[in-house]
Amino acid sequence: MPTVSVKWQKELFSNVEIDTSQSPYVFKCQLYDLTGVPPERQKIMVKGGLLKDDADWSTLGVKEGQKFMMMGTADEIVKAPEKGPVFAEDIPEEEQVIHVGHSAGLFNLGNTCYMNSTVQCLHSVPELKSALIKYPPPVRSNEVDQTSHLLTVATRDLFNDLDKNVKPVAPMRFLTELRKKYPQFAQLHNGVYMQQDAEECWTQLIYTLSQSLKSPSSSEGLDTVKRLFGIDLVSRVHCPESGEESTETESVYSLKCHISQEVNHLHEGLKHGLKSELEKASPSLGRSALYLKDSRINDLPRYLTVQFVRFFWKRESNQKAKILRKVDYPLELDVYDFCSDDLRKRLEVPRRILRDEEGKKLGLKTREKNSGSSSTDNDVKMAEAEASSNRSGDLSKSEPVEDAPEKEKALTGIYDLVAVLTHKGRSADSGHYVAWVKQENGKWIQFDDDNPIPQREEDITRLSGGGDWHMAYICMYKARDVPM
Amino acid sequence: MAPADPNSTGSTGGGATRDQASVKVPSKDPKKKDEKKDEDLSEEDLALKQQLELYVERVQDSDPGLQKAALESMRNLAGEIAQEYAKRQTEEAIIDDLMELVGQIVAFHMKHNAEPEAVDLLMEVEDLDLLVEHVDNANYKRTCLYLTSSAKYLPGPDDMLVLDIAYTIYMKFEEFPRALQIALYLDNMQYVKQVFTSCNDPQKKRQFCFILARHGITFELDEDMCSEDDEREGLQEIINNIKVNEGYLTLARDIEVMEPKSPEDIYKAHLLDGRASGGGSVDSARQNLAATFVNAFVNAGFGQDKLMTVPSEASSSGSSTSWLFKNKEHGKASAAASLGMILLWDVDSGLAQLDKYFHSTDMHVIAGALLGVGIVNCGIKNECDPALALLSEYVDKEDSSIRIGAIMGLGLAYAGSQDEQIRSKLTPILGDAKASLDVIAFTAISLGLVYVGSCNEDVAQAIIFALMDRSESELGEPLTRLLPLGLGLLYLGKQESVEATAEVSKTFDEKIRKYCDMTLLSCAYAGTGNVLKVQHFLGQCAQHLEKGETYQGPAVLGIAMVAMAEELGVEMAIRSLEHLLQYGEQNIRRAVPLALGLLCISNPKVNVMDTLSRLSHDADTEVAMAAIVSLGLIGAGTNNARIAGMLRNLSSYYYKDASLLFCVRIAQGLVHLGKGLLTLAPYHSERFLLSPTALAGLVTLLHACLDMKAIILGKYHYVLYFLVLAMQPRMLMTVDENLKPLSVPVRVGQAVDVVGQAGRPKTITGFQTHSTPVLLSAGDRAELATEKYVPLSPILEGFVILKENPEYREDH
């Protein structure tokens, strides 16, 4: 009966006796006693071979004091989880959008970056999307002409495509319809379609949509687009010469930010843009006289569009030249200063609520911190982890709240930047237009035609001009509202 | 005859006064001519001889000015003799008289610290044996240093001859570790044996064993080399590399890097701006696979990590299972095998942890477990041969992924062993008509690894037949490239021995003939520095090919493989590759980054780093991918902050391209290989010895990288594990005579080339003093900063045994 030593993991069992008259299975049972590894899980290695249960000891020629090595554990056997994980590579393309975190880019079809950037900016307005989904209404009004109808349908389909795809989309149909409706966009120069002014495209598109999305059945008589983008202005027209004074109201889709020598900031530009001089016939003087027009906002939209008046017609070069001046714009815009007294009154209560809420949030945070610092480090981490999970939970929860009946929400006059359309180059009809859009997850994406590039928020405010870098041309702000 | 008096005072050093000497023209009229025995000398020789005698006389002169002049003239004389010798060789005239002069000059030079001149002269007259008589205790070290370093620039077979002499001299002066190194360089096992038999000190023998273990060869001690059984067992254990895991972990504990790192710790996405791909909710199989590799590379050998090994306190069904199954299909094979990498060199716990995967029902998991067993055993020999025992029965299984796992595992575990059992297991597969191409390709590579540099006829035959059996379409498959490579590995560094096989390869199908030829040549001359072969490969790259031929890829790699032998060659090759980049065609440009990666492996040279960084943005994605992987290779195990930064930026640049991002991740893992404790450099012992298995592993990976998309980005990503063959701790670990770690102060600095310098110049510069164990970077050299101990090896790398210095006295 030879005795051998058996090495198992880091342990060494010396002097294990082998009963050579019995099968190796008996030996394995011996080892079972020592190691707790069931015989069928044991792998015993003898000189480059495995010991079989029915082997013959005599043929193996076991020597006294020989070393064996045993492999095997009593561990649980690895089982595949019943439901395997889902991999991004397996998911069909349309579902991937959610995981990528942003929608698709748009192919440039030959100098169409003005259109691509406009579409990308407008695409970021969910209310517009939902309104388009309902189009066409069961009862179509006759006011809408065929070309507008087709353009609206093309817009709807394009928005749909953008949401479904991860890969860039080619907006062929939309472009065709746009050019049909507005032949100026089909202008050719040397046989190539010309670069166009994005602001023109934006205005025309909004106008068309406002026409076609006007629901005749609506009790308010208001169209969706107007509710979303329309700004009511009340203007006091005053003639210093005669002392005449009158009030006018009008509705516009964007505020103009005039850029002059004194303007360094959006706020100043807007103030400038709301004042204008005009010459008209004065009934009291009996001749045309200079009138001053001083406008104030009387009603606020959900999405405030601000256009930087960067281009002016330069006769000598026969093109729309560009003002490169740097005009800063904030991520958070307060338009309270531009509002009429009437509107200010209406805004007071919501603004107070918003202030209170923000104060509460801050107060809550400080309290949380206090409790954290008093306990141990571990708890802080725990609290942080919880807080972060709560935060992410909040984000997902907050979305359905927004969709809740809108009447319960009140505007506060405070707006957050959600999209910037920039221009790079020296004139409106040349250069390159790009859209910078904030996604629902709070991340900024630069849509450079077919190439969406993630960006940092601080880089967005750097688009304020003053050089040859991209500079803001149109900014879109979203209203911050409070539930009432 | 020679009147030179051996007792004459040593020279006062000629170099410093060269200017003065050159002014003095030795034209004093030769008055004291000794005319005896001159009848058999030609007129010219007579003049020579007379001059020599005059010089010798002057050297003995008391006037130092005259002495210097004489020494200077001696150099001229040596040159004249060399010319005369060459002339007489062509005329086949008698040279005895010249040799007599040579003897005198050599004796003179050797006495006067001018060993290089003596060696040069003897090489010119092809009689190096003469040197052995003239070396003494004072100058043998410098002589041998000159011999060994000049060997790299000599054409064969002179280089072998020179090293042979160096070996003889070292043996004569009982400088055994150096002799052993030369024996290993010559790959002469007889010499290795001789070193063991000539040395009687058991401690020194242990040191030899450490040197052998680092070189990674299989070597069996017998009774002659060590008579006592117990002692022999202990020595054999060292050769079997059992100690490496222990030493590595001691190093890790000392440097305090035991804490496992997760792939996120390596990616450091928080340092990037908002561009880091959020992705988030859904796992990407590609990215998880990358994380698996990064995790394996970073935690290699530490025995713990954050993905695969379950922390002991966690519940039994912990994260290990879940991470394994976060990989898709063949990805699971790499994931299971990564456990082997994490437990690298720790056979006992490695096998225990891999055991659970053997009972899985998933073929890929079993394949991975088999591969993992091979990885754990890589470079380690065990008398129970667990790898062979466990893997051999899976070699002939149905499922091809299991077969590949077992075959590749065997190749890794027994690389360089020339194990007969493996051959008999694997060669039948090559002839198996039912085996799929991938199985055959991996079998060829495994055989090539096991028999690396052996020139084994039988294996060569088997692979050649397998190549001939391939159909036309199979020859076009990306994996087919592994067959010629397997064949080439058999002749790694064996130069002319490849010729017979290369002849046979000329009969192959046209599609693969040239490819095979290039691969064989590049392997055979790998690490030789043979300039003619480099030129040959460059010539091949200069040709403009018709479509479809791919043999220029291995030719470009061949340049790197041949030229990597020494620093000057490396520099020249880098410049040549730069030219190829500018003028070469696409298939050449794709291979250039890989060649750069091999030339500077684990040695991040700034100029190469810049070139690769530029190429990593190349318009051709395959060039970019190769450049990115090469960035990982040159930075492998260095934690180089610059490369890490570059890769981080690349990860945000390529965040949308899954394939390129995968390459970036792999490179990031490589840069932090073993948390910066490992190196992939196949050269060791002051860049003198080349570990054949390490080179074989690297070359295999690089050949696989020639078609990145099909192999590494396809389903054969586990070829990345071939790198395990080259992984070695880049440490200096000093141990006492009981092999327990011993901390002593050492100076670590940039190595200085002291060849041919007189006196005892400093061998390192810009050093810092550390206490062992320490990390050594590429080009670093260490020396003891204390007199208290004497190292048993002159080269302070890896494990070094220290002996107490008997003459040391503590001074107060």
From TrEMBL, chain A:
Any idea which UniProt keywords this protein has? Hydrolase, Protease, Thiol protease, Ubl conjugation pathway
What biological processes does GO assign it? proteolysis
Listed Gene3D superfamilies: Cysteine proteinases, Phosphatidylinositol 3-kinase Catalytic Subunit, Chain A, domain 1
| Free-text function comment from the UniProt entry | Recognizes and hydrolyzes the peptide bond at the C-terminal Gly of ubiquitin. Involved in the processing of poly-ubiquitin precursors as well as that of ubiquitinated proteins.
Q: Which superkingdom?
A: Eukaryota
Name recorded for this polypeptide: Ubiquitin carboxyl-terminal hydrolase
Q: Where is the USP domain?
A: 104-480
Give residue ranges for domain Ubiquitin-like. 2-71
| InterPro entries the UniProt entry points to | Papain-like_cys_pep_sf (IPR038765), Peptidase_C19_UCH (IPR001394), Ubiquitin-like_dom (IPR000626), Ubiquitin-like_domsf (IPR029071), Ubiquitin_CS (IPR019954), UBP14-like (IPR044635), USP (IPR028889), USP_CS (IPR018200)
The entry lists its GO molecular-function terms as: cysteine-type deubiquitinase activity
Going by the record, the broad EC class of this enzyme is hydrolase
- Provide the reaction this enzyme catalyses: Thiol-dependent hydrolysis of ester, thioester, amide, peptide and isopeptide bonds formed by the C-terminal Gly of ubiquitin (a 76-residue protein attached to proteins as an intracellular targeting signal)
Q: What is its EC number?
A: 3.4.19.12
Q: Where is the composition biased (Basic and acidic residues)?
A: 394-407
Entry-linked SUPFAM superfamilies: Cysteine proteinases, Ubiquitin-like
Presence of keyword Metal-binding:
no
Region feature (Disordered): 364-407
Oligomeric state and interaction partners are given as:
Interacts with calmodulin (CaM).
Q: Which family does it belong to?
A: Belongs to the peptidase C19 family.
UniProtKB/TrEMBL annotation, chain B:
GO CC entries = proteasome regulatory particle, base subcomplex
Cite the record's note on assembly: Component of the 19S regulatory particle (RP/PA700) base subcomplex of the 26S proteasome. The 26S proteasome is composed of a core protease (CP), known as the 20S proteasome, capped at one or both ends by the 19S regulatory particle (RP/PA700). The RP/PA700 complex is composed of at least 17 different subunits in two subcomplexes, the base and the lid, which form the portions proximal and distal to the 20S proteolytic core, respectively.
Which residue intervals define the domain RPN1 N-terminal in the entry? 73-271
Q: What does this protein do?
A: Acts as a regulatory subunit of the 26 proteasome which is involved in the ATP-dependent degradation of ubiquitinated proteins.
Pfam families xrefs: PC_rep, RPN1_C, RPN1_RPN2_N
Q: What species is this protein from?
A: Abeliophyllum distichum
The residue ranges flagged as biased composition, category Basic and acidic residues, are 26-39
Q: Where is this region: Disordered?
A: 1-44
Could you tell me the keywords of this UniProt record?
Answer: Proteasome, Repeat, Ubl conjugation
Biased region (Polar residues) positions are 1-10
Q: Which GO terms describe its molecular function?
A: enzyme regulator activity
Question: What biological processes does GO assign it?
Answer: protein catabolic process
Q: Where is the 26S proteasome non-ATPase regulatory subunit RPN1 C-terminal domain?
A: 755-808
Q: Which InterPro entries match?
A: 26S_Psome_Rpn1 (IPR016643), ARM-like (IPR011989), ARM-type_fold (IPR016024), Proteasome/cyclosome_rpt (IPR002015), RPN1_C (IPR041433), RPN1_N (IPR040892)
Please give the name of this protein.
26S proteasome non-ATPase regulatory subunit 2 homolog
Give the protein family: Belongs to the proteasome subunit S2 family.
